[in-house]
Amino acid sequence: MATKTLYGALHTSVRSWDRNREISMSQIGMWRDSRCSCCSDLLSRSISRRRILKTAGLVSAAAILHPLVVCAEAEAEALVLSCIDPRIQEPVHKYLDERGLTGRYSHFVIAGAAIAVVSPVFFGWHKAFWDNLALSVRLNQIKKVIALDHRDCATAKTAYSEAALATPAAEAKTHQRVLLQFRKQVGERQPKLAIETGLMALDGSIEMIS
Fold first, then answer.
1. What pairing do the DSSP bridges indicate for beta strands 194-200 and 206-208?
2. How far apart are CA 21 and CA 14, in angstroms?
3. Domain co-membership, 139 together with 171
4. CA 77, 81, 83, 87: dihedral to nearest 10 degrees?
């Protein structure tokens, strides 16, 4: 949309330039008579409509491609998978910061974290994660995946039975099963990546699952 606006504005400017060309040329003629060595050479050069539009096209193409170039140069240590739950955002960021990973990871945030990637209930979401993981491997040269599920997750309650989450122990066992399945799938799709998985409490404490 921005490119079309830029191109339209340049077309308008060029049409305006055509209308005023006759007046401008007479002015240029007066200036050329002054024989100023620095200006006369510049004014004697022809600027065609085609040249202006060609330049506009190059500028537009650069504007579109530039973000891709920047992204391609942004290396990261890991891709982090975590949940959208507002309560867990600060604990996750603090945990990663304490590990020295701030500014060194790409972040994929989706309801349920690993649950969203492996549960049949959310089959339509699976591809989005795997596509993003593959892109992060290619563009960011990540070396590992860190998946962080969390306790009291509403998405877990949607995907699994009440009995599977009825007690802290049952909840931990359910997330362990999910994260082991996640590890298996990552290993099959991206065998060169290291994998870390954990279950985080709302206070930020974490139980690593391997």
1. antiparallel
2. 10
3. yes
4. -20
Q: Are residues 43 and 83 in the same domain?
A: no
Q: Please state, in angstroms and rounded to a whole number, the distance separating the CA atoms of residues 98 and 188.
A: 30
Question: pTM of the predicted model, to two decimals?
Answer: 0.66
| Same structural domain, 104 and 181 | yes
- The answer on 123 and 197 residing in a single domain is yes
DSSP 77: S
Please, what's the b/e burial string for 109-127 (b: 16 or more CB within 10 A of its CB; e: otherwise)?
ebbbbbbbbbbeebeeeee
Ordered mean pLDDT values, 10 residues apiece, the chain (210 residues) = 45 47 43 44 44 45 43 80 98 97 97 98 97 96 98 96 95 97 98 98 96
Distance, in Å, from the CA atom of 175 to the CA atom of 165, rounded to the nearest integer, reads: 9
Q: What is the total count of domains within the chain?
A: 2
Residue where a domain stops, chosen among 25, 48, 72: 72
